[in-house]
Every structure is written in structure tokens, then in C-alpha cells.
């Protein structure tokens, strides 16, 4: 049976990440807590707004109300990477070659490993950022579509249009597809080779969490009473195909999803604080955490896929050990 090691904190958990195999919990008050031979903490911001895990370099990239972008490393080390005076850093992203991107208002900034910066201005507010899995390319979610840049060059960006407000963005792990979350209860996607559109609708709520499976064959999403998992195995992705619905509950909505690092399994967090794991092949479920007092707001597996860190809106955090 899975065992749960709780960590009760006092602010909304924005993100969780495993840095050098130690769970770190980033809270909205700007503090980053970790379980490392006891409970330790470090201050990253005066108010934290956004976070992105940089698996390649074992760091958590965070942006805050203080206009700073920092990298949090294991042991609580906090390194400032950039700042924008009097701006709230609403979006951050981690890229290849130690590149980092962040946005405030209509401007996205890319900071390269050597400290050089490139500003990318847009006619409307930047809502989401994502680096492509290969090459130095970045996608920007915006009103009426997405913009793709090669920030290391001065080339003209690629514009992908679709009416509506696009709030988040993600490349598939193989780089063949680009998917955005929307202000309406839907996802939109493009097949990058030919620009074909993919519309994934029917959600009762906005999609605020998503996770690609280990080999990129599936995309798990929140926004329904089940984890909605879209198939991306075919050359045209999910077009014309129905999604899986895993962990269906009639009395609670899915708020967070996190795919296992090796298996076709997804961890699912709900509005009532429950956490389940469900297998794609047969929809088999395992209860990982009983309901708590608030919605699950962050989930992350460790590298081995044996432990799952979770955080909630009220600060109820912890680690589930599924090895028993």
C-alpha cells in the first residue's frame, strides 16, 4: 500500500519539483520548502506567481510579484537570473542549453546561458511560453493563436492563428505538434508539418493542468470529473479519435495531472484533495491520498517513478511512496 508523508504548510502551493531527488514545494508567498533530513526552507520571492521545472539542469525556475526570475537549486540555493523592474513575472519556461524565458505583459524575454537577453514583443499579452524539445525555438500563447520564434536569430516568427484567447502552450515531446489551452473550455492544436488544426473540446471547465506521457504518445489533461487523455500516436494526432477518461468521479473535478516518467500511468489530483493513479491500458486505479481540505494544485513524480510529491491550495503538501 502507498504511504503518505505529510507536510502541512500555510500558503497555496504553486509547484512541486524533485531537485537531486529531494522534493521541493514552491508556495505563493515566495517561500520554497524542501524535505531533506527534516523540513528546510528558502525565500525565492516576495510573492511567487509562476514556476517551471528544468529537469536537464535540476533546478526550478520561478517568477514573482517582485519582478525577479530566479533558479532554485537543491539545498535551497537561490540564484537570480533576470529582473524586470515594476513588472510581475506571470509566465516562465525552461529551455535547452540552460536558456530561460519569462514574460510580463506583451514582452517575452529569453535569457541565454551566457547571460545575453532577447526581447520578443507581441501585440497582445503573452499568456504562455514553451520551448521546443529540439533546437532553440520558443512558442508563445496569445490572443487569437500562437507565435513561434527562433530567439537566437533575427528571422521572422511563424504565426499560427485560431480565434480566441490562448492561455497556455506546449510542444509534444517529438516536436511534431503544438497544443494550447484556451480561455474557453477547450484545447487547440496544430500539426507543425502542415499546419493542420486539432480541436479538443467538450470540457466542463478550463484546462489548467496537462502532462505528456513518457514517450509522448498521450496527453493527459484536467478540466473534467476524469483525467481526459488524448492519443497522439497517429500521424495526425487525436484528430477523429476519442480520448480516454481515467479516474472518473462524479463529485469532484480533476485539477492536476502528472504522467509517470516511465509507465503509461497518470497521477490525478482533484478539487477535494484526493489523489489517484490510473493506468492507460485498463483504467485500473490506485488510491494514493484520501481527500483533504482543498484542491490539489501541484503534482510531480520523482525520477524513478516511485514517489509522488503533491501540494494543495491550502498548503497541505506531502510525498506518496508507492513502493509501500
Automatic annotation (TrEMBL):
<dbReference type="Pfam" id="PF12894">
    <property type="entry name" value="ANAPC4_WD40"/>
</dbReference>
<dbReference type="InterPro" id="IPR024977">
    <property type="entry name" value="Apc4-like_WD40_dom"/>
</dbReference>
<dbReference type="InterPro" id="IPR011047">
    <property type="entry name" value="Quinoprotein_ADH-like_sf"/>
</dbReference>
<feature type="domain" description="Anaphase-promoting complex subunit 4-like WD40">
    <location>
        <begin position="261"/>
        <end position="322"/>
    </location>
</feature>
<dbReference type="InterPro" id="IPR001680">
    <property type="entry name" value="WD40_rpt"/>
</dbReference>
<protein>
    <submittedName>
        <fullName>WD-40 repeat-containing protein</fullName>
    </submittedName>
</protein>
<dbReference type="InterPro" id="IPR015943">
    <property type="entry name" value="WD40/YVTN_repeat-like_dom_sf"/>
</dbReference>
<dbReference type="GO" id="GO:0006367">
    <property type="term" value="P:transcription initiation at RNA polymerase II promoter"/>
</dbReference>
